[in-house]
Amino acid sequence: MEKDLQIKLVKKAKKGDAHAFVQLCEMYQVVLYNAAYKLLLNDADVADCLQETEIRAWQKITNLKNEAAFNTWIFRIMVNHAKDILKKRVAVIEFEERHAKSEVADYGAPDLNQELSALSEIYRIPLVLYYYAGFSIKEISEQLKMSTNTVKTRLMRGRVKLKNLLEEENNG
C-alpha cells in the first residue's frame, strides 16, 4: 500500500472519518486474516479476533502518533488479542488432552499448520509475523516489545523446533 495514501487515511480516521478507517482496514484485511489464522487456526476465533482488533483500533486511533506506522500498530493490536484468545483456550486444551482416551491414527503427510500450532507461542508468533505477515525483525521486535536479538533467537529456535516436529512426523 502506498504510504502517502495510508497517512492521509489515518489522519482522516483520527478526525472521526469512519469511511477512511474502513478503507484502512480493507487494505490490511487479507494479511491480518492470514496472520491471525496462522496464530489461532480456527475460523471462529479469527473472526472474533479481527472484529475485536478493528473495534479496538477504531477506539484508539486518536492515540496513534505515527500515521505511517498504522500497519505495525494494527498488527500489534491483533497479536495482543490473539494472545488473549490463546490464553483462554489453554485451559480447555489441557482438559481435553488429559481426558482424551481414543487416539486416531493419521498416516497422511505432515501438516505445517498443525506442527506450527504445536510450537510454543513464544516461537509461533515471531514465525508467523516474519514468514506469513512479512514483517522485518525490527518491526517484530517493536510489536512484541523485545530486542531484535531476542526475535532472531526465537526465529532460529522456532525454525529448529518446527523442523524437528516435521521430521518426527515424517519418521514417526
UniProtKB/TrEMBL annotation:
It holds the Pfam family Sigma70_r2. Signal peptide: none annotated. InterPro entries: RNA_pol_sigma-70-like, RNA_pol_sigma-70_dom, RNA_pol_sigma70_r2, RNA_pol_sigma70_r4_t2, RNA_pol_sigma_r2, RNA_pol_sigma_r3/r4-like, WH-like_DNA-bd_sf. Keywords: Sigma factor, Transcription, Transcription regulation. Residues 114-162 form the RNA polymerase sigma factor 70 region 4 type domain. Residues 26-89 form the RNA polymerase sigma-70 region domain. It comes from the Bacteria. PANTHER family: RNA POLYMERASE ECF-TYPE SIGMA FACTO (PTHR43133), RNA POLYMERASE SIGMA FACTOR (PTHR43133:SF51). Belongs to the sigma-70 factor family. ECF subfamily. NCBIfam families: sigma70-ECF. This is RNA polymerase sigma factor. The lineage of its organism: Bacteria, Bacillati, Bacillota, Bacilli, Lactobacillales.
